[in-house]
Each structure stands twice: as C-alpha cells, then as structure tokens.
Amino acid sequence: MAGNEAAGRPAPACVLGIDLGTTSVKAALLMGAEQGQVVAESCSRETQAHTSSLEAGPQGMEQNVRRIVRALNECLAALPQEQLQRVSHIGISGQMHGIVFWKRDKGCKWTECGTGPTFEPEEVSHLTTWQDGRCSPTFLSSLPLPQSHISLATGFGCATVYWYLKKSPDFLKSYDAAGTIHDYVVAMLCGLKKPLMSIQNAASWGYFNSRSKSWNTDILKKSGFPIHLLPEVGDPGSIAGRTICAWHGIPKGAKVGIALGDFQCSVYSCLTERTDAVLNISTSAQLTISMPSGFQPPETPDPSSAVTYFPYFNDDYLAVAASLNGGNVLATFVDMVARWTEELGLQVQEPAIYTKIIEAALAQNDSKLSVHPTIFGERHIPEQLASVTNIAVSDLSLGHVTRALCRGIVENLCSMLPVQHLMEMGVRRILGSGSALARNEVLRQEVERIFPFPVVYGKDVDAAVGAAMVMFHRK
C-alpha cells in the first residue's frame, strides 16, 4: 500500500461486502489484486437478536432489528478505518424471505459514534424471519394462488403480510414501507423514500413473477392486500443509491448496490464456471448448478419437485436441490449415542463420540446397510421420515452404521438432483463446501464415491465476500 502512495499513486479503492445472516452479521473488505480480488479484512458478530412474538406466540420467529444493526455497527467499528475511508462501493446481502416494516420518514436517526456517523433504527417493527411458522398449511391454502414459479410457504414476506391483514390489521396501519432486513439497511444508507428490492429477494417473498419481473398486483389487490407496502423492484447487481452520510469512515456518496439474496451471494463467491456444481453440507445440505443462458422456470410451481429455481444474476437461474437433512442428521445421531451411553450409566462427551464414530467408519470401507436419513422430512415430501433397511448381523458395528448414514445423506441429495441430470447439464466438477463436509472424511469419501466428477474442497462459501464480488465486477 505504502509503495503505491510513495510513488504518487493513490491507494486502491476497496469494496465492502456485508451479509446480514440469521444468527450473525459479517463484513468483508475486498481489494483488487493481480489474480482478481483478495479479502483484505473481515469481521463477524453474533446478532443475538431472537425475540418473542407478541402477535404470533410460540409459532412466531422474530428478531430485534436494533440488535441486528448494533451487531452491524460493531462489525464495522472493528475494521481498519484507513481502509474503510477508501470504500467506493458497498454490496449487501442477507437472509431471504423475511420481512420488516418501517415508517418512511422515521425509519432511522443518524447519530455520532466513535467512528463517525451511524444510523439507529427508529419506528421499525421486528423482523419476521424465514423460520417463522405462523402461517399454517390451512391458512396458506386460504390465500389466493400466486402467479409465480415458487410455492408459497410460511415465513415468506407476502404470506406474513396476509397473516397480519387477517389476524392483526391494526399492526399494518403503523407502517408505510417494508422490505427484507437488507433492503431496510440499503434504504437507510441511501435515504430512499421508497424501498428498492432485487428480483432475488422479491421472488423469495412470493406473489412475484420472475419472467415479467413484477408483483402479482391484480391478484393481491382483489384480496385487499396493502400493495403500497410492496417495494420497487430492480435487477441484482444494479446500484440502489449513494450513502447520504459518511458511515463509520466510509465516505459520503459511496455507491450502494441493491440488496441481494444470501444464497445467491454464497454461490457467487465460489462458482466460477458454468460446468461446476456447488455441494454445500453444513447444518442442512444443498446441491446447486447454474442453468443455461435463456432458461425460464415453469409458469407454476410443482410442489412435488425437489428442485427449486432461484433468480441469479444477468437473468440467469440457479437450480437448487435444498435438503433439510445434512450435518444436523449426524449431530442427532451423535446425540442419540450420547443419550444411550448415559442411560447405560456411562459418560462420554459428544465431541469424543463424533471423533470415534468417524474413526470407526473410516475402518469400514463398505456397508450393506441402507439408511434413508430424512429425520427432518423434506419440503417436497414432508411426511416421509427416516428408515434403515437391509440390516444384516455382519453390519451392526458403529463403523458400518456411521458409514451407511454418511452415504445416505449424500444419496438423498443425489436423489433430488440426480447424477444423470448433472451430466446432461454439462457438469464437470463438484465444488465441496460447508462445515459438515470439512470435518468429516467419511462424508467426503462418499461424495467422491457417488459423484463421477472430480471434487474440489476448500472453496470458501461466503455471502459477504460474494456481495462484495458482485459490486467489484460491476465497478
């Protein structure tokens, strides 16, 4: 850096990426380098924002927006000031589907803090998150049928608005704007009178037609939906506005991108070739491929289909098999073993059990056992739970069972987006990521056994970095 300045050249501009996740906020500073971009600094803070829901009770899943913004401020305050002062563009992603309401002229107030001006939420509701369960299947079936390729589900922004409309209409009268949590942050930073939302987030709310890039306003109007709450919609990668104040040292007038989906940004951070598929196994599991240019999703959703199409960038789509069963299945298995040993009067800590079962499975190259691991069900077949078949006396060891369980997790994902389909789509390589895959060699062996492609690990999937990369590539 100093060399640049000593030679009379200004220090290079930085791009800030922010991800407002379900449990934490992450920020990453990207700088240009000969090989593309490098992450110069990053920081993350737990939000601890979960709060009880007055209206929805135990079914509700809400977060306190003040706590989320506090975690964001703490994150930025921890980054080096001299680099923040060189930020020219800001990319923001976050948890999709959720909704927060605010008053347009009283969304926040700007105050001075140790690192310069920052904003504090003012007349803002709680964030109702994607995990919210207030909209029962019966309630959802009473709503008008959307004209969208994505099935409506509880936790989707528009479904939540309908719930308030029918159960607590006075609540909606207090607000005149709404968006995802990351749309809110963009609106505050840029002083937007009406919030702006990317196609990625609009599709995640429901009642949005990705083909025409428009809300289902006619359908919504007929049922009394407060359509004045729907944000304007723009293309992902476009600029929403400029910062109206200096912010934690970031200059006033820095360009802010329209808020993006965290899933799309995670994929963007590692997917470089159309011939790559991204396999992520952390708590849950996803297998993702990019669809050919010009692909359009079906007009109406197929609830029995295991594959969902997510709007990506430049009018492209991602095909995603999203399983609810990943590392959480192994965690449940470890918990079960721990409880059994406790019932037998013995004490073994869970981390020790995890290490032992992996060691035991590594010693067993094969297992005739067949484990269907869907203890958490799947969105397309919620009623189908887990099962174990083909049980023989020779395959009852801990090693055999663990090996079969790991294979079952990968096979289940493969049944949702089969290898044959990947080959037809021209996939040549699997990019493996996620905490469960990183710490479990047996799972990696099963991935390599089941997929007839080379598997590359260690590609970091990071939505904050992806959001910064999107802005970097559009600079």
Sum up the structure in keywords.
475 residues; 6-stranded mixed β-sheet; 25% strand; globular
Structure description:
This protein is of the alpha/beta class and 475 residues long. Helices cover 32% and strands 25% of the residues. The protein is built from 17 helices and 26 strands. The two termini are 20 Å apart.
> Tally of extended strands?
26
Structural class: alpha/beta
Instruction: Assign a percent range to the helix content.
Output: 25-40%
Estimated share of beta-strand residues: 15-25%
Ends apart, CA distance between termini: 20 Å
Would you tell me the overall average pLDDT?
Answer: 92
Q: What is the global morphology?
A: globular
Gyration radius, in Å: 23 Å
List the uncertain runs. Answer: 1-8
Q: So how many helices?
A: 17
| Main sheet properties | 7 strands, mixed
In short:
The chain is an alpha/beta fold and 475 residues long.
SSE blueprint:
Blueprint: H1 2-6, E1 14-20, E2 24-33, E3 36-46, E4 50-51, E5 62-63, H2 65-77, H3 81-84, E6 87-94, E7 100-102, E8 108-113, E9 116-121, E10 127-128, H4 137-141, H5 157-167, H6 169-173, E11 177-179, H7 181-190, E12 196-198, H8 199-205, E13 208-209, E14 214-215, H9 217-222, E15 232-234, E16 239-242, E17 255-257, E18 260-261, H10 262-268, E19 276-281, E20 285-290, E21 307-311, E22 317-323, H11 327-343, H12 350-362, E23 370-372, E24 387-389, H13 398-416, H14 419-424, E25 429-433, H15 435-439, H16 441-450, E26 455-457, H17 463-473
Parallel strand pairs: 1-6, 6-17, 6-18, 12-15, 19-25, 25-26
Antiparallel strand pairs: 1-2, 2-3, 4-5, 5-10, 7-11, 8-9, 13-14, 16-17, 19-20, 20-22, 21-22, 23-24
Helix pairs in contact: 10-17, 11-12, 12-13, 13-16
